[in-house]
Each structure stands twice: as structure tokens, then as C-alpha cells.
Input
Amino acid sequence: MSDSQLPFVSIIVPVYNDPKRIGPCIEALLRQKWPEDRREIIIVDNNSTDGTRDVIARYPVRLLVEKDRQSSYAARNLGLREARGEIIAFTDSDARAHANWLRNGIERMERDRIDYLSCRVKMFFGSGARPTLLDMVDYHFAFDNQVDLQHSHSTPTVALITRRAVIDKVGGFSEELISGGDVEFGDRVWRAGFRQEYEGSAIVYHPCRSRPRAFFKRTWRYGRGRLVLSRRFPERFGSPLGHVLQWRAYLMPHPMRFAKRIRRTFAFGTGAVAGILTLYYLNRLCYQAAKWWALLTGTR
Output
């Protein structure tokens, strides 16, 4: 397929108060091996209060501002309304797309007539610091997109490519949700009969979270969001009470199997394995606790 025959792609990135990471994110998108005249990069600022927009202004991208609603999903929907592409790609301001992300992903979509493509997310450590045990938990267990697609028919918007025809049919993201909007959107796509697949060669890199506050805050947000989905759409995501009573979610992983899994990539000693296992288990409990909190407080 010649360059002139390639589909036009709109890449949408929401951002809020992230001046340090939005620059590297945009630079990675500008290095995409996709013709410049066949793509556009849309950065949607969600009413940042720092120098984020000044950083964005240095690059040849479209800058939009979502002022009415403080929501990454509202920002993405604004990008969708302005996008000109027949292919829509989503990523986040803290991520860095591999140069072949679009090429490998869209070629697979065109070859196999895929409507919604889940891409691989590879975790990386922050520069200049020795990885922490929290880094290792994130490195091994965050963003298992292939499994997520099989179980929930969705993928995080840090690494999603879909077609405009899909958006036109099912609509955009649910702006009232704080978290879980990507799950709700993917479920709608699946229920509408569109083909969903995973492509491991379409890669986006995401930093590990090494600070406890950021690490567990994200988990709390995910758990709360999952319970809210069940409360709003029980016919699609099950009853809220059923989610918090899943007894397997409270079990400690088998230590030997856990050690075998994480030692595939690093030669961890026994102490490191024990520390990673403990943090992983605490993270699971945090996820369940957030569900209980949302259930008992009536969070919607």
C-alpha cells in the first residue's frame, strides 16, 4: 500500500498538569513511521494550571482545551469531535509510543479487518534511580492488555487504536465516570459486534510508579471505578455485592509460582521476592478495599 493510500490517523492525548512528560510523549509521536500528511496529533489539555500548555505550544500539534469538565474522558471526547481521521489512536501524556506503534498496529488492523486493537504496554524504570520493589510490582503486573481484552473486552486508552466507524456507532467515552471509562467503552464495542484483537508488536512504553502514594492511589481509583461500573450497569458488569464477595480476590498468591514468574526476567533473591509478593498482595487488598468503600458510601 502506497503512502497516499494509507488511512488518515488522528492521535488523541489528554493531559493535565504534566509539563515534564508531555514533551517526551509528543516527541515519540512525531517519530512515528507514518507519513506526516496522513496523521494528526491532537493534545487535549484538561484545564491545566501550570506550564503544560507552554510545553505543548513548542510542537507541531493541535492543542485543544477542555474547560467545562475535569475528566480525561471529556478531554478524549473533545478530541474525538475535532478528529479528522478514519483511524483513531489513543495514548496518555506519561507514555512514549514506539516508532512502529502506528505502523504495526494499523497494518494488522487493515490486514485482518480489525475494528478495535489492544496494543502492548511495556513498563520502564525511571532514569537515574535504582528500581524499587514497587517498580518491580508495576513492571511485572501492570497493563496485561492481552488478558484484559479476553476477560473484559477492553484495553486501557494508553494503547488503543480503533476506527472512526466504531465511534460513530457506539459513541465516545462516558464522561461521568472517574475511572473505568475504557472498560465501559470496550464493552460497548464488543456488544455492538465489532472485532477486537491484540497486537503485541504495536508497543507503547509506560513508566513504573515507584512512589507509594501514586502507586496505591491509582489502584484505589481502579477499584472504585470497577465497583461504580457494576452499580451503574449491573446487567453488563455484575452486581456490586458480587464483586466485593469474590473470595479468591483476597487470597495470597502461591509463593513458589509467584517467584517463578518474576524470576523469568530478573534473578531476584528470596528477600526481594518476599518484598514484591507482599506489595503485590497489599495492592490487591487495596483494590478490594476501594470497592468496599465505593459500595458502602454509595459512590456513583
About this structure: The beta strands are 9-15, 39-45, 62-65, 87-90, 96-97, 116-124, 160-163, 196-207. The chain has a mean pLDDT of 94.
